[in-house]
Automatic annotation (TrEMBL):
Domain Carrier: from-to ranges: 5-94
Naturally occurring in which organism (per UniProt): Thalassoglobus neptunius
Protein's UniProt name: Carrier domain-containing protein
Length: 94
């Protein structure tokens, strides 16, 4: 099981990579409270999927395993609103 600190580091790296592809007004802050879905989110659905793919890649590289986030979110009745929610989701499944 990967610890939450390691997972957050991976997520923050993924945020920085994703931000390079986003317009300035859509860029995310690397903090747990940053909204990634819902009305207050800065990114659209494409940005969210791009972020999830980057997170999977970073977590896999750093810890050796990561759940398929898009697939698990589709199958599970889970709502991930913030970066902290994503970190918790991953830490419970790795």
């Amino acid at each position: 099981m990967a610890d939450r600190t390691t997972i957050l580091e991976c997520i923050y790296t993924a945020i920085n990579e994703t931000n390079e592809m986003l317009p300035a007004e859509s860029r995310l802050e690397p903090q747990e409270s940053e909204k990634v879905t819902g009305e207050e989110a800065k990114i659209d659905s494409l940005g969210f999927v791009t972020l999830l793919v980057a997170i999977e890649r970073e977590v896999e590289a750093k810890t050796g395993g990561c759940p398929n986030l898009a697939e698990e979110l589709t199958e599970a009745d889970v709502e991930l609103t913030t970066i902290g929610d994503i970190a918790g989701f991953i830490s419970e499944r790795t």
